[in-house]
Structure formats: structure tokens, C-alpha cells
Amino acid sequence: MMLRVTSLLFAVVLVFEAGLSARANPLDVFGFGARGQGLGGAYTAQVDDFSGNYYNPAGLASQEGLRLELGYAFHQPLMRINGADVGVDPSKGLQGGVVLCGPLAGRKFGASVGLYLPDGVVSRIRALPENQPRFVMVDNRPQRLVITTSVALELFEDFFVGGGVTFLANTRGVVDITGDVAFFDAENTELRSALDVELNSVRYPTIGVSYRPGKHWRFGLTWREEFVLSMDMNVRVSGDIINDENLDEREVVVPDASFLMHALNSNLFSPRQLALGVAYEDESWHVAMDVLWMQWSRFSAPTATLNFDLDLGGLPFKIPPQPVPSDPGFSDIVVLRLGGEVRALRGHWGELDVRLGYGLEPTPVPAQRGTSNYIDDLKHSFSVGLGINLRSLEPIMDKGINIGLSLQGIWLPQFAISKDNPADTIGNYVADGFSLGGTLTTSLLF
Question: Mean pLDDT for each 10-residue chunk of the chain (446 residues)?
Fold first, then answer.
């Protein structure tokens, strides 16, 4: 009987330990909007579309009129350990927003709402043991609903300030299991379950400034606050343990037995960030550079902290205390992003722009020589994009339509992980990865 009770309780535990890891939100990984992605993320200084909700909200006041924007993004990671794909889920979903700009008290004013809606999964929970190898920087990050809203104002001529709030989906819930646990035969166990999951939100602010003196130079500075999404889950099992040796007479051995598990985990973390951008624009081309500081040193372990309360009457059974996750020891990093755009064609119908981008992101993850297996290393991102500006659409639309298309590849070169302990249960291995995807965005200008 003790084996059956043990199996029941730990089956519940394994539901939550079988799969939680994850880090920063999908906009940090792949960017927001086709133009910003095509420029390699070097968009802080000159952003003027709905993606300003992420890159720099101050840029939302730099234009006039109404923009309705909608697009789709898709990215497929291929992450490998010892040459075998580990099956990281793709990131795919709708992107878009509304931007409204106009005068306010003699100054330019802008307001916007942006959205990233992933296909099929609004919020995902995964729980992995500390020693389970995982690509910690990409594993669970794409699976998030993101809503962001911002306002911007021109304080002085050519000097703009803006701020916004971003909302991300979070999850908490309770699993209730009640019934009778059979003493001898598991098939005689009768259990009923109920799941109550609450989808709430976590908010974090973004503040930006933009200075655009003259026709050529553009400067931007953006501060994004950190946030943590925590998975808070309670599992309650209650009922009688019965002696089912005689099926005609079910004897209660332990009345009102109970088991409670509380799991608390950092399900998603996005670091505090400071982005400095500069761009130089000419009539038919521009170049841009962003330098981004990310405070990964505040990263907490993505392994669940479990607490148990077990009441089996007089039965001599105890659940051993669970180990406390160790400090991951991540460090702060500085990311470099470069981008350029050139006007390739111009005609009565409009213009065609070609974009290129590159990003260099060092890893915040220390050498994994102990029990943890957070996989990451220096990453390179490459992007190419097209912008089609259709202008001759009067009288239907006096300002036209912009269509943006970008392709992005993120390359994680192969590197080795060597353990100090030769008896480590995971052992030494090599890892590498690549992510390929793109974004299509259509903007209606009024």
C-alpha cells in the first residue's frame, strides 16, 4: 500500500517538475516590427512606428496623423546538444498597434498601443530540475502575450520624451484532487480532480527620450525596468485511504488523509535595460548603432522551490526536504546592434528601401561546471529587410501604405561544457544553435 500512496503523491509532483524555465520577453529576443528587426534592433534613435512602444516611446510623437499597423512574426529555433535537436518551440504570432500623433498645446503629441499575440499559447508554464540542460535564453521566452501602451510629448523643439507600460501574461492556479486511495489495488482508487487557473498580468515601465536636431542626426535613450513572472501553483490531494482487500466492504484505514504541495518559480525574467542609440540620416540612406546594457546579475534560479505538507494519520511516511536551488551567478552584459538602410528605388508609385542589421550579444551565463546546466554562449544575429512605401493611393489614402518584410538569423556557435565532477549525472557535452525567422508588417497611414 505504501508504494501505491507514494506513487500517487509523486505523480502529482512530477506533473510540475517535468517540464519551468524561461527568460526575457519575446521582444527582447527577436525585436518588434519588421523595420526594427531588419535594422538589427538598432532602432532606439529613429523609431516612429508602433514598435516605439518597445524601442523608445519618445519617438511616437515625431510624426503626424494616424497609423494602423498589423503584422505577423515567425521564428523557428534549432537548438542542439551533442548534435541532437532538443525541440525548442517556435515563436509565432500577430504583431501590431495603433499610433495617433497630433498637436497638443502647441507641441507634438503621440499615443500608441502595441500588441504581440502568440499563436495558440497565451502563457506557458514549464518546470525543469536544476540539472536539466536547457537553452536558458530562448527556451520559454516567446510564449507570452504582450500588450504595451505609451504616450510621448515634444518638450522643446526637436526634443521628445515618452513613457509607457507593458503588460505580460502571468499564471497561477490550484489543482484539487479528492477521493479514495485503495490499499492494495490501484484500479480500485477513485479520484476526482479540478483545475482552477488564473491568468493575470505583470507590468513594467519604459521611459525614453529622443533628440533630433536638424536633418541628419538622431539620438535616443531608453530605460526598461526589469520584471519577473512567477509561477505560483498549489496542489491539494485529500481523501480516505481504504482497505480494498474485501471489495464488498471498503474499510477506511486513514480518514481524511491530505497532501499539499506549493510550487513557486521564477517563470520568466527580463533584466533592467538601458539602451543608447545614435543614427545619421541622409536623403536616401541612414546608419544606426545601439549599445544596450542588460542587468542579468539579478537573474534568479528558474528551478521551482517546493514545500510539502503531508498528513497520513499514523502511517510512517515522510517526504524528504527538497534541495534549495543554487545561485545561477549570471553577470551584466553589453549588447551591440548595428543597422543600415538605403533607398534602392524611387518612382511615382513610391520607394523601395533595403535594410541590413547585425547584433553581437555576449552571454551572461557563467561556466556550467557544477550541477546546473544553463546553456548559452556568445550569439550573432543577422538580418535583412525590405520596405515598400506606396504613395500614389489618392483619393483612398492620401499618405499611402508601408509594407515591411524582414528575415533574421540568430547563430549560437558550437561550444563545449565540461564538468568538474567526473561522476556528474549529465556529464560533458557540446551545444550549438540557430534560429531563423522573419516578420511582415503592413502600415496604413492617414
Answer: 40 37 62 93 94 94 90 92 88 91 89 86 59 78 72 93 83 65 66 63 88 94 87 72 67 75 71 96 94 93 72 72 78 97 91 96 93 91 95 71 95 94 89 94 91
CB 195 within 8 A of CB 184: no
CA–CA gap between residue 319 and residue 312 (Å, rounded): 11
| pLDDT value of position 14 | 36
**Any domain includes 133:** yes
pTM here is 0.79
**What pLDDT score does 140 carry?**
52
Amino acid present at 224? R
Question: Which element (helix H / strand E) includes 29?
Answer: helix 26-30
Angle at 59 between CA 37 and CA 91, to 5 degrees: 30
CATH number of the domain enclosing 46: 2.40.160.60
CB-CB neighbours of 417 under 10 Å? 19
State the total domains in the chain.
Answer: 1
DSSP per residue, 219-232: EEEEEE--EEEEEE
Structural domain containing residue 418: 26-160+207-225+270-297+315-445
Q: What CA–CA distance (Å, rounded) separates 422 from 420?
A: 6
The pLDDT of residue 21: 38
Angle at 315 between CA 312 and CA 317, to 5 degrees: 80
Tell me how far apart the alpha carbons of residues 279 and 435 are, in angstroms, rounded to a whole number. 27
Task: Give the residue among 298, 337, 373 at the shortest CA–CA distance from 79.
Answer: 373
| CA pair distance 359, 342, nearest whole angstrom | 19
- Please, what sign has the CA dihedral across residues 299, 333, 330, 29? positive
**Residues in the chain, how many?**
446
Angle at 216 between CA 214 and CA 353, to 5 degrees: 135
Answer whether residue 75 is part of any domain: yes
Structure-block grid coordinates of residue 4: 501505491
Half-sphere exposure of 376 (CA within 13 A, CB side): 19
Alpha-carbon distance 90 to 77, whole Å? 6
Asked whether residue 20 is assigned to any structural domain, the reply reads no
Residue 71 domain-assigned? yes
